[in-house]
Design brief:
By secondary structure, the protein is mainly α. The longest helix is centred in the N-terminal third of the chain and has 28 residues. It is globular and about 50 Å long.
Length: 202
């Protein structure tokens, strides 16, 4: 299972790093149109497979653009990312042994039981709040939850979340250097998490 997943995970991490750096440069030197396009493309890749730090970029967008437009672009982009991820992971899990190992996990079985009782609400709440969203996204895909309801839940959770974060950028006009530091901190935490996961397998 690990070898099959890792062959996709490494290119995804490289793509994620390229997107983080590329969009960061756009925010510093790009035109308003380039920033909008770059932000939308960035959010269209931000998912479990490519875990990109989104809050700093949403705040940066909120400094220049109306929070409603930022939230709309961000949430729509996330729906595109979720759409692609849904089909990719459904295909990957169809190989059999990966899904079987996931379903045997005791923690995942408890999570799935809770998820199945209120799937849509779980996705909306975890999409909006700081509660980890990824386990519930995984539960939705493993359970073959309705794609339409899944995307609606992603949008319903992410739109108000990004609107509020963009409002922070609009109201407080946080300096660019602080947002850059936050990006590096979030990327660093993500890398530490990957390293810790690999160590736990040894």
């Amino acid at each position: 299972m690990n070898n099959r997943f890792e062959q996709f995970a490494m290119p995804a991490r490289i793509l994620g790093l390229v997107l983080v750096l590329g969009v960061g440069v756009l925010f510093l030197v790009g035109s308003r149109g380039a920033q909008l396009a770059g932000f939308f493309i960035y959010m269209s890749f931000a998912c479990t497979i490519i875990p990109l730090p989104t809050p700093p970029y949403v705040v940066a967008m909120g400094k220049t653009f109306h929070p409603t437009w930022v939230a709309l672009l961000g949430a729509t982009g996330n729906c595109i990312a979720a759409f692609g991820e849904y089909f990719f992971l459904t295909w990957l899990f169809s190989k059999g042994e990966i899904q079987a190992r996931i379903e045997k996990n005791r923690i995942f079985r408890r999570l799935r039981h809770f998820f199945n009782r209120a799937a849509f609400i779980c996705l909306v709440i975890t999409g909006f709040t700081p509660i980890p969203f990824e386990p519930f996204r995984l539960a939705a895909i493993v359970s073959r939850y309705s794609l339409v309801l899944y995307l609606l839940a992603v949008f319903a959770g992410r739109f108000p979340r990004y609107y509020l974060i963009a409002q922070i950028g609009f109201i407080y006009q946080i300096p660019a250097y602080l947002l850059i530091i936050l990006v590096f901190v979030m990327v660093g935490i993500s890398k530490i998490g990957v390293w810790a996961e690999k160590k736990s397998r040894i």
